[in-house]
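B., you asked whether I could sanity-check this one before it goes into the benchmark set. Here's the sequence:
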Amino acid sequence: MKVNKWTLGLATLGLVALPAGLQAEEKMSPVLTALTPTTLSGYVNTSIEWNPGTGNASVPGFAFNRGKQDGFNLDVVNLALEKPLDEAQWSAGYKAELIFGPDANALATQSSGSASDFAIKQAYVALRAPVGNGLDFKVGVFDTPIGYESFDAYKNPNYTRSYGYTIEPTTHTGVLMSYQLCKFASASAGIANTFGPQINARANPPKAESYKTYMGGLSLTAPEDWGFLAGSTLSGVVINGFNAGTEGGADQTSFYVGATVNTPLKWLKVGACYDYLGTTDENLADPTAAGTSWYANAAALYASMTVNEKLSVHLRGEYAWTDTSLLISSDPASLSNPPGGNNEVFAATATVQYDLWKNVISRLEFRWDHQAGDNDMTGYGGDLSKVGPGGSVGDKRNFYTIALNLIYKF
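And here's what the prediction gave me:
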């Protein structure tokens, strides 16, 4: 049986299936042979959101929340080509991951510095060196090693992101090394151009040409003889560097610690995490304001309950506090100190996931955000006559979100 080269190419990428025994008859070209381990994957992420009440002049400042109120949304489309590392001592591979849609603007990896509905999420060469148990490298653009939640919504227990995720870095351009210390412990360390996500951005100016961002982390997994705790994880990460993406640039440091714990009830898992972000503003546009510092903290508790193979329930409770307007404005440029004191936010999220269709994640979510700071003119939308300077804040203290999230994975 003869098959044209285009069909062979699609079969190589796993997009079509070949009849049994065909590979013995057809000899693929060296190029197609080299592509054989490559996989194509991705997803389409959509949502429908309703916010009871009126007035969306300002909305909660968690990630990817801007412009999605009271309507139908395409969140993001993801396409990834990958050849993962194999078991060879000198294994090599790569990953090229592209995203399309509004969330690509918020990720802000574009090397031009201008927002766009297209972005490179990851693009790295993966390498392994035969050092001890094997030292793995990612060289290029890679996801940050910090955090409990991911950019990819389907990997998270809830649809909307936490405030902890919001104050974490997301993407770096540099080198990330990982090493399996033993069966129950692994470590990572990396160096990147900057703290922020912009590809190929530099800390110079205002920093020296050699100034870089550094990161390190440790992850522990409970061994099998720990009873019901077996498989539970504990991890911590610290990242320090210069973020060229903030206004005028800023020195930033992130600390993170998080755990996922199995319980005596096989259907119940719980988790907890804490994030801290400290920033010192360089403010190149206004040197007299350089050195201004601000902070943000976020703590969260998680609970996931599996009812059956299709139905699960996921709960999250959060408390976040900062001395900026970061938590009560979804505009990432709104980081000024509010005229009334610190800002605090409580949030509670309940998500019901029912996987009715094959390859589709379908979930219904209710979220409540409560602005609890001592600034009377800071809040969410509401009566526009009471909106503060610049029209960026309102007089409501509570914001409610009901969302339906559908994700097709392939």
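One thing to flag: The mean pLDDT is 85. Otherwise nothing jumped out at me.
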